[in-house]
Specification:
Helix content: under 10%
Structural class: mainly beta
Radius of gyration: 22 Å
Signal peptide: 1-20
Region (Disordered): 27-72
Shape: globular
Protein name: DUF5050 domain-containing protein
Keywords: Signal
Number of strands: 31
């Protein structure tokens, strides 16, 4: 019960972090629009209004056009938008759909079905665009589409699809063995170096026995078609695979030690696990570099060093991972296995990586509800910019959920919208549009 509750809480936290706030670039980049004094349309860009008594921002520079970069090709995550259909970034657009898939081209703003068959009803497996009964997650990786679909009978399938030919393959399948169990979730993680991560969560609910949860984490190799299960230690829902490079996994454990009062108030002691037992089993926040061949690891950073891990999903960009130690915002390079400090800043309450940039939220007094500034800077260094953010100091005006080559998809004014990266940096949120998903 405790693990099941923690799983639900973590899922909600990730979604909220991504909506509320919110990978190595390709060889080419495109120049974005200047988020400076004027926009291309001639109107002024609104800088955040500093409330009386609030600290001044670290910088007000907004006069240099930021470069925008293509979406990374490695360590990309599967995407899911509940209620709007699953979405995965394409080269210059995005795929969407809950059963049959569509593609929206961002240059022409046209949405087309992946099925060219005349007269097709697009409602079953005879359709070239058919992916499955209920697509919960979708990822575009190296030109192929990968999805988790639900079969309606507490079972899941892991599928691949060639968007050009419509060919569909079942790579994995999970079904309950009896009436007293069901798969609560099968979750796609990140895709990199010809592999991907998958988590399965199986619930056992036999009324004559105590309910229990069985969790497994796998690395799937696309070339070999093989599954490698991670050690049981890493099946804890707080452990996540932050990145893959060759035979190395970057593993992070994000947790906050509860006080006895917090533990009791949340009802965790009702599961028969005392607070003392909780403390004995508590694993501090840490980052590990794990070798798949030797099954050995080394600790990259730990809670004892002041490690703080963000709840935002966008923490890995290509082979780079972001985290905080004290007031230092650090970047870890999986390829070189080195750490460097991107910037040192006080009162940072959230951070993430998108578009080859470090994004930071700095609160006025160190608390989330005190007002904030949003900054960004290139991952390789350079000037720190203050995001205009529609003039707001309350929260992210446009909460990024999905990144594409030249656009972001996210929440704006309580709805889902799509905006070009140039318009996002130039504070032209009014140029965003609702999507075709």
């Amino acid at each position: 019960m405790f693990k099941r509750l923690m799983c639900v809480v973590l899922t909600l936290c990730l979604a909220l972090c991504c909506w509320g706030c919110t990978q190595t670039p390709g060889p080419d980049s495109t120049t974005g629009t200047v988020p400076g004094e004027t926009t291309e349309a001639g109107g002024p860009v609104t800088a955040p209004t500093v409330p009386e008594g609030a600290p001044k921002p670290e910088t007000t520079e907004m006069n240099t056009a930021p470069e925008t970069f293509p979406y990374p090709t490695e360590n990309v995550d599967a995407a899911s938008l509940r209620g709007h259909g699953a979405i995965a970034s394409g080269s210059n657009g995005y795929y969407s759909g809950r059963q049959t898939l569509k593609y929206t081209d961002m240059d022409s703003w046209k949405t087309i079905s992946l099925c060219p068959q005349p007269g097709c009803t697009h409602q079953d497996e005879t359709c070239h665009a058919w992916m499955g009964e209920n697509v919960s997650q979708l990822c575009d990786y190296h030109g192929s589409l990968y999805a988790i679909t639900e079969d309606g009978n507490a079972g899941f399938q892991f599928l691949s699809k060639d968007p050009a030919t419509g060919e569909r393959k079942i790579l994995g399948q999970w079904e309950a063995e009896d009436e007293w169990e069901y798969y609560e979730q099968v979750i796609l993680g990140n895709f990199s170096d010809g592999r991907c991560t998958i988590i399965t969560i199986l619930q056992h609910i036999n009324p004559e026995e105590e309910d229990w949860t069985e969790t497994h984490k796998y690395i799937y190799d696309f070339t070999a078609g093989t599954w490698e299960e991670l050690p049981q230690e890493y099946t804890d829902i707080q452990w996540s695979v932050a990145g893959i490079y060759g035979d190395f996994l970057l593993l992070s454990h994000r947790d906050k030690q509860l006080t006895e009062e917090e533990y009791t108030n949340r009802g965790y002691d009702s599961d028969g696990v005392s607070y003392e037992e909780y403390l004995q089993n508590y694993v501090p926040a840490q980052i590990r570099l794990y070798n798949l061949k030797t099954r050995e690891y080394k600790t990259i950073a730990s809670e004892e060093e002041g490690l703080i891990l963000s709840g935002d999903p966008a923490l890995t960009y290509g082979y780079t991972y972001i985290y905080q130690k004290g007031n230092d915002i650090c970047l870890y390079d999986l390829q070189t296995q080195t750490e460097r400090v991107a910037i040192t800043m006080e009162r940072v309450i959230n951070f993430w990586l998108l578009d080859h940039k470090v994004f930071l939220i700095q609160s006025f007094n160190g608390k989330p509800d005190s007002g904030c500034y949003v900054y960004f800077m290139d991952m390789e260094g350079g000037p720190l910019y203050l995001l205009p953010n529609g003039g707001s100091t309350d929260s992210m005006e446009f909460g990024i959920i999905v990144e594409g080559d030249g656009f972001f998809i996210g929440t704006y004014r309580s709805g889902m919208s799509i905006i070009s990266k140039a318009d996002f940096y130039a504070d032209r949120y009014d140029q965003s549009r609702t999507g075709g998903y």
